[in-house]
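Hi P.,

Sorry for the delay on this. The queue was packed all week, but I finally got your sequence through. Input first:
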Amino acid sequence: MHQFSIRTATPDDLDGARAVMLDTVYRDFGTGYVPRWHADIVDPAGAYLASPRHTLLVAVDGEGGVVGTGALDSRGPGAPPNPRWLAERYPSGETAQLRRVYVRPGHRRRGIARELVARLVEFAVADGGYRAVYLHTDPAVPGAEAFWRSIGTVVHDERWDDGGEQGIVHFEIALGERGCVSPVCSPG
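Then the structure:
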């Protein structure tokens, strides 16, 4: 069994984090780098390390390599491309948006993503200014929708609600006591 640890990213982790993110958008999403969607990947320090309300976590294997990422920022979903009601429900500044929760294929199904999410939710609770945790996912990515459904609540499924233009599924994760949500947090 491979061991891993999770920590807040430092400048020394950014190349490894960027590699995980870019590999994911090319391999799993099939989109490659799209500037309007992925600008934070090019500048993760500016996107996640510059503000005390944002964070980038990395999962590191026993050899020190970055094998997973998870980020949080205070930007709610924009309208467009999202429906106006969704942007109003999750306004910037009050919404902790989870981003870039990615794990390299050889390290999946070991609890890394679930632990990243638990730590991100704890970060949101500790901030004190967030009233919701929001994220969206592409259900075409194998395993993504099932993973998020095991943790969060669907608030909007574009495949059914909007005629499928983007096909994105939007989720909310409850902010529980100390950030612990039973499907996310481990006992103890």
